[in-house]
What does this fold into?
Amino acid sequence: MPVDSPPAPQPPLVLDTLTNPGLPTDECPRRARIQLDLLLLAIEALDLGGSEAMLATARDLGLESLVKGRVHLWLLRGTNPMRRYSQRRPLDIEEAKALVTIICTLARRLTVLVRQLLVGYQQLADKQLTPDHHFRLADYLIRFRSHFRARMNPSRAGVIAYSSDEKLDQLAIELLQQLLLCSGVLGPQRLWNSLFDGEVS
Amino acid sequence: MTVQRQYTLPHCNLVLEGMSANANDPLSPLSVLMNAECHLPGATDASLTGGREFLDSLVAAVSRYGQQLLSGVPYPTAGGAVIVEIKPGEGLYHHLIVHQQPLGEPVSDINAQPPLDVKLTTVQFYDLMEAVDQLLADSQTLPDLTAQFQAVSRRLVQPTEPVAKRAAPAVLGATALAAAALALFFVPPPTVEPTRPESDASTPAESSTLPPETAPGADAGATEGSSSELSAEGGDLDGLDNAPPITDAAAIALLSSDLTNRLQAAWADAPRPSGDLAYRMVVSEDGDILGYKYENDLALAEVDNTPLPQLTFVPLPGAAPVQERVAQFITTFTPAGEVVVEPIAPEASGSSSGASSGSAVASATTPASLPPLSNRVTDGDRIRDLNSTLYDSILADLEPLSANEALRFRVRLTETGEVVGYEPVSAAAGLLAAETPLPGLVAAANSTADQADFQVVFTERGVLEVNPWDGWPQ
It folds into this structure.
């Protein structure tokens, strides 16, 4: 039977485990957009080839229809309102699901490193030492700070709150914890649902 | 057949023992839980054990707390008694609290057990959560136990700011409003005086609302014109008795002729009155008739035949009264059709106004200086004689005064012409009384003879005026 139009694109099956949260619109709330971009930023700070790995993961998971290459990924991350070049476009639920899947896949790959850093941070904190004494952790924090400052708009109120090194380090450690928590078997579902805490009716 | 399932992670070891649904099938899932045991090596030596209730509570607490860590939104605490709960601790620590007290038994002193508090690092908590997640994802163990994820509803989210902080702006606003209301409460509301049109105010019907002493039937002495009575005719003339008089004779003459011409022109084709109509008029510097008052009864009755109601300047309603210099005239409309305008000397009109108000002030504030008159001199000729006697005696001793305004005194004389006492009417007069000849003239301080009061004015230009306090006798 001849068809005169291509079949309607189906969302990738890998996203089926994430249920729609029941929002009034198809757009992600503001806090979800910030959270997804910051987690990706933390992954970049952990892994030098993080941005390449994101694109490779998207290809591996069959998410090309939602994350169409480097520029499109940059546009998706630009929906974070804290960004210097923030995009006005909304972030669709399906696109957010793709980002969640990529984050969790990469987090699982980085689990060992994340555990090492968190254990090291815990030990340093117990001894009242600064993170500078842990080489790998200090490396991560420095890179996270420079990434954050290079890409976030310093005049936004949400960014001004992280003006000092200590506050940025605090944020980086929190993101590290969150990466660990979403690296488990049910990590994607946990992360996905946590994005809409306080947003659903 | 007893089945054991074990989920092992570096910091957590979760062991479940139970019965499989079908004893003959080795692949059938574990469906009945007998015992759950959780070891947390590195965190505590104690093993947490319990039945299905313990496991359910552990799963719920871990799920809830994991979501809270991920989103930062505090999860609303479930009501009722829970066996396991997890709370955030200081720094990166978390507290796993297990209430070992069996729920069904009443708590007493004998079997009461303190809750077990296990301090977990984030990594240890992650291992616990991962063990729970693996259990949830395992379809071979307790298939009825599956992950239930639900985002926190907007209504259940606790506001991040305490109530006191959120309420502070509202309380501040309400307080400011209350303070402003309290402050404005003491500010008197502005009094709006309705302005009556002059044509209405001067009709005979309206004159019935005048005070009794100015009513048409009152005797001539009561209606003797003073500018305070004139101003009583209309509310918009309140300021006129205090208005500064025009003293320039040329200006008064100009105003007088202008007024004559205008009245004559406006009155040309009106019916002629049966007698003289006399009015006291107040005219502003630029010729506006600000107010008028009848001087005889006929003038009141026939006021509508005169052009005065039409010519009177009616101020705009609501406009602030303007304090301007005025001149007073006596205008007479004669039966022959002539209009005669005679200026009233500003000093005389001013003095009569000052006298009427000053006497009230004097009798009210300094009654001791001059008691009210008991035995008056009533003879008109005698009063005129006394007036000229007083004038002469003051003028004999008068020297130039340093006052820059008129000094006004009330002087009391006996029938025989002796000065009983005097009393300053204005404040400046009280200050400068010693410069005047009056102190030297007081002769008979205590006299029971008939007495009369006179007003003595030393004007700023050095002119002496003496006239009877109660007006010239008829």
In short: Residues 30-46 of chain A form the longest helix (17 residues). Chain A has one domain: 27-188.
